[in-house]
Amino acid sequence: NAGRRILNLEHSLRAANQRNRILSITDALTGAYNRRYLMEQLPRELERCRRYAYPLSVLMCDVDHFKRINDVRGHTAGDEVLQQFAARTQKSIRSTSDWVARYGGEEFLVILPETSHDGALHVAEKLRDLISATPFATRNGDCAVTASFGVASTGPNGPEISLKVDKLIRAADECLYQSKQEGRNRSSGQEVELTMTLKALG
Predict the structure, then answer these.
(1) Whose CA is closest to 90, among 76, 109, 75, 104?
(2) What's this model's pTM, rounded to 2 decimal places?
(3) What are the residue numbers of the active site?
(4) How many Å apart are CA 63 and CA 66, to the nearest integer?
(5) pLDDT digits (tens, 9 = 90+) for 7-43
(6) Strand ranges of the sheet holding 147-153, from the earlier edge strand across to the other edge
(7) DSSP H helical segments within the chain, as ranges?
(8) pLDDT tens by residue, 41-90
(9) d(CA 106, CA 55)
């Protein structure tokens, strides 16, 4: 009996530690990974893709006119939109390798290891269509939602040695800004090394 109690206590402790670990890396509202996990894990993804010469792509996505949703329908409805946005995104990517992190506010990053630039643009367009195809249900009525995407990818043979995570995220953010400037509900992208090389040559 004493042995069983010790085993049960050890099992409960392991389960509690696992729950605490999940809570520490997960965004409480949306269930996506949080920024802490993003900044811990993305450098590892970058290094792994560099080591094995695989491309790596990052999508930065932003809910269009999110402030308007909060102002018109209330912050509760805004929270419901973010929850459903994350859920739709997570269900539409490869569960074995891809992952989603909430970057801040209504912005999310989708990490696509072993995905070329063309492949990442295809994923962005698929997600964009999925978001806009069906209204989001909220307590204050259905809400039509669109999203804009910025796509940043390494070269097809993996990241160059000089590429850092902040440059990859910044490139995705620049592309997202371009999508917003061109009217929202669209995707824009760039291959980071190619763009950096062209700037250096210019």
Answers:
(1) 109
(2) 0.86
(3) 106
(4) 6
(5) 777 777 777 776 666 778 999 999 999 999 999 999 9
(6) 99-104, 107-113, 56-63, 147-153, 187-191
(7) 2-25, 35-52, 66-73, 75-91, 117-133, 165-181, 192-201
(8) 999 999 999 999 999 999 999 999 999 999 999 999 999 999 999 999 99
(9) 27
